Amino acid sequence: MAELILGKPLSRLPAFLRDRAGKNAKVMVVADAAIAGRRGKSLVTGLKKAGFNAALTVIPSGERSKTLAQAGRLYRALARARFERKSILIALGGGVVGDLTGFVAATFLRGIRLVQAPTTLLAQVDAAIGGKTAVDIPEGKNLVGVFYDPLFVWIDPALLKTLPQKHWRNGLSEVIKYGAIRDARLFEWLERRIDHLVKGYSPEWAPIIARCAEIKAEVVKKDPVETTGQRALLNFGHSIGHAVEAASEYRDYLHGEAISIGMVVAGALSKQMTGLDPVDQIRLRALLVRAGLPARVKKPIARRRIMDFLARDKKVLDGAIRFVLLKGLGEALGGQDVPPELLDEALSASGL
């Protein structure tokens, strides 16, 4: 499990990296187009001052950049720059940049050094932590990937001050997830403060980000490569959510929006199968809606397409789709085999 560096400004990363990795190494900062102009260039300047041979590579924003084709372009850029195994990739951006850059770092020369520097709420509380890397293929989301730990994960909450509102809501979905699966007190606190928290960054967000990162790290340490079932609990709402993303070709929903729909479906299934109190099911749905997240799809998606993508989900075992459900708020259960009639009812309630 990589070290988490919490609360330090991004400007201090170059000196920290020099102390950990030595200077003179080749470094490529991979950033998405939304932040490359300001954050990317500034980081590269700092790296050069710290003694690194640093350059910036920009990728288009959005999930549709998380492909084998985009990975291939990065491989070629690294080869042309004559990167070596001691060279370093820095992923500067959201979950897409982190997943793609991590995948490339893990596979180029069978592994070069990696740093995660997440700049979105979703990436700071979830995507950048735990060493999962992946790209999408037409048959499904995150189906091609490896586990690969970075040297460290640099989490600077101040970077979120300029995060667009839609991406703030996107990250809130994962924050709510952590309360639902692991921390009832966090969930209750979010209920009390959501109308303020949804507005964007403020200093009170720092302990929330730290708590979510702590939960993720605790779970990952117990099950680093998903062999015991513990880590699968982090995928609450993700089976349906990933299917919604893929079925809509990553055009209609941000990741957190799709996961919100998935959590609503999982909440309905939890009431039927694992004893979730009906009041708590309502609380989960209500909190997501108050956060500006969807409880149902915007327009119909053919059930056949949803089921096709679900059948290729990473949690399928012996041909059966396994769901993460809730026994109560703050307590999740993995490996749940849902009867078709209950799944049909829950999907229909969310317009699927």
Can you describe this structure in just a few lines?
This protein has helices spanning 13-21, 33-49, 68-80, 95-107, 121-127, 165-182, 184-197, 205-222, 238-247, 255-273, 278-290, 303-311, 340-349; strands spanning 3-6, 26-32, 53-59, 88-93, 113-118, 132-137, 140-147, 152-155, 322-328, 331-337. With 352 residues, it is α/β, with parallel strands linked by helices. The protein folds into 2 domains: 3-161, Rossmann fold, CATH 3.40.50; 164-349, Dehydroquinate synthase-like - alpha domain (Dehydroquinate synthase-like, alpha domain, Up-down Bundle).
**CATH domain class of the largest domain:** Mainly Alpha
Main sheet attributes: strand count, strand direction, barrel closure: 4 strands, parallel
Distance between the termini: 37 Å
Mean pLDDT comes to 93
Question: What are the main properties of this structure?
Answer:
Dehydroquinate synthase-like, alpha domain; 352 residues; 18% strand; alpha/beta; two-stranded parallel ribbon; 48% helix; globular; Rossmann fold; four-stranded parallel beta sheet
Structure explained in plain terms:
The protein has 13 helices and ten strands. The chain is an alpha/beta fold. The protein folds into two domains: 3-161, Rossmann fold; 164-349, Dehydroquinate synthase-like, alpha domain, CATH 1.20.1090.10. The strands form four sheets. The protein has a four-stranded parallel β-sheet, sandwiched between helices. The protein has a two-stranded parallel ribbon with strand order 1-8. It has a two-stranded antiparallel ribbon with strand order 6-7. Helix 4 (95-107) links the parallel strand 4 and strand 5. Helix 5 packs parallel to helix 8 and helix 10 runs antiparallel to helix 11 (278-290). The longest helix is centred in the C-terminal third of the chain and has 19 residues, at 255-273. The radius of gyration is 20 Å and the shape is globular. The mean pLDDT is 93.
